[in-house]
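Exercise 7. Predict the structure of LysR family transcriptional regulator from Zoogloea oleivorans.
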Amino acid sequence: MSIPLAKIPSIDLLRGFVAVGRRMSITLAAQDLFLTQSAVSRQINGLELALGMKLFERAHRAIHFTPEGERLFLIADTAMQQLQDTIGTLQASMAAHHPVTLTASISFVGLWLLPRLPSFQQQHPQVEVRLSANNNIVDLRQEGLDIAIRYCAEQSMPAGARRLFGETVFPVAHPSLGMTRLDDPSIITRSVLLEFEGDHSPWWSWETWLDMQGWSGVKPKGVIRFNLFDQMIHAAIAGQGIALGRSQFIRPMLNDARLVALPTPHPGPKSNKVFCLLQCDQAPSKETQALIDWIVAEAQLTDELPASE
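Solution. The predicted structure, encoded as C-alpha cells:
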C-alpha cells in the first residue's frame, strides 16, 4: 500500500531519523548534522508524531529501534545514501565544468585578449571561459573570480602578481589621413587630436607630447576626448584623427595597415606602467592553470615584439 507524495514527512525529519539510526546516538547524530541535541530530538519526535508510531525505545543513556523503526530505517537509510551519492556526483560534475572567470579592463579584453582567445579554445576546447570586462578593481574571492589582469606602475604591483608586459605609447593614424611622420607643428594645426582621458599619466597627454617636441602652445584643429581607450582606437581606425596608441594592443592594426605609426622628432614621455596577472588561488584548478599558462606565454610574445615600426 502506498501513500500520496504530499503525506510523506519532510526530508529534514527523515534526515534526522537516519542520522540517529546510523549512530544510535542523538549526541553523535547532532554532531554529524551540525545541530543541537535538542533540535535532533525534536526532529525524531516530529517524525514519530507525523507517522503516529514510536520509532525508538529510549533507555538510560541508550536508544534502540522499535520493530517499526527498524523497518523504516532500512528503507530510509538506503534512499538517503542514494540521494547523497547522486547529489555528490552531480555537484562534482558541476565543479568539473566550472567556467574559468577572468576580469580585466575593457580595452585589455577587447583589444588584446579577444583577438587571441580562439587559439586558447583550439588548444583547450574543454575549458569554458567567462570574461568580466570591467575597469573597476574588484576583490577576486568575494566576486568569485579566478584571474584578474591589473594595470599599474611596475613598482606598485600587488603582492603575488606576475608581470605580463609593459607599454609603449606613440602617435598613430589611419593611412587615409596621408601621414607618415609627425615632424612639423603645422600637421597639428590642421589635424584633430584624439585624447584618452581614462588615465591622467603624462604619456597619454597630447599637451605633454607637444611640449616635448618643442611645440608648446600649438593648437590642433580640434580635440575629441575619450574615457575608454578602445573607443579612441576605433575612432583612429575610422580616420577621425591622430591618437596616442599603445603598441602592445594595436600591433595587429599596424601590421595590417589599419593604423600607421607616426614618428616624432623627439621621444615622448615613457610609461612606467605594466599589465600584471593575479590569481585567486595559489593552487588553482587545472582549467584555470591552463588559462594562466596560456596568457603568460602570449604576454611573453607581446613583450618581445618591437615597439613600433
